[in-house]
Amino acid sequence: CFTCGLALEMDKGWCKGNQVKVQTTWGEVIEGRVFSFDSGLELLYIQQQSERQQVSFRILKISAIASRQEPTQTDKNQLINLQPVDEATLRQRETEAIRKIQAKSRKIGKGVTPEAQRAFNAIENIYNQTEWQGSDIVVMKTVVISSPYGPEQCVISKPSGAHLLKVVQSILVDTQKVNK
Q: How far, in Å, CA of 119 to CA of 174, rounded?
């Protein structure tokens, strides 16, 4: 393992390409080839290959390893060669993930009771154009529900919303029954 260069890597046997089998502090047994070892962060990167020849990677903090079998030296050429990362695609995926998280967080009322949140969730399951505006629930920009979020607190902002009002009130009645 003289190609590793770092004393810690040589001492622990975390040389690139070595076959390793470790047991984590939570009891999981992980087996694969050392893909990389970061002595600064004390992270071990293990390349695994499934029976269907699919490659995956596990990243373990060295402190999470409870025990290990002595590593077996193997050929480094058996490791997968990673392709360059398309940063534009990563930024796009990150932007999309952030957008989804922000949309999900807008569905959580700030400073409202659990009952109010359950009422919101029940309505939002049927009408996805439901949102919080401060502490009020607004359904399809037509029905506004104020605290304490019962059928009596529903008001329509458009005359064409009479039918929607009745449906929302019905949902709130059902939600109140469940909350009791």
A: 9
- The CA R_g of the chain, rounded to the nearest whole Å, is 28
Q: Report whether pLDDT(71) > 70.
A: no
DSSP string, 11-68: HHT--TT-EEEEEETTS-EEEEEEEEEETTTTEEEEEEE-TT--EEEEEEEGGGEEEE
Q: Are 23 and 65 in contact (CB under 8 A)?
A: yes
Q: Supply 19's token pair.
A: 């076959």
pTM above the 0.70 mark?
no
- Looking at residue 5, its pLDDT comes to 40
Interstrand relation of 65-68 and 19-24 (parallel, antiparallel or unpaired): antiparallel
Retrieve residue 162's tokens.
Answer: 């009479």
Torsion of CA 11, 13, 15, 17, to 10 degrees: 170
Q: Which pairs with CB-CB distance under 8 Å and at least 24 residues apart come from 123-127? A: 123/168, 123/171, 123/172, 126/167, 126/171, 127/164, 127/168
pLDDT at residue number 84: 77
Beta carbons of 14 and 72 less than 8 angstroms apart: no
- Matching residue, tokens 């260069």: 5
Under a CB-based contact definition with an 8 Å cutoff, are residues 144 and 136 in contact?
A: yes
Q: What is the pLDDT of residue 73?
A: 64
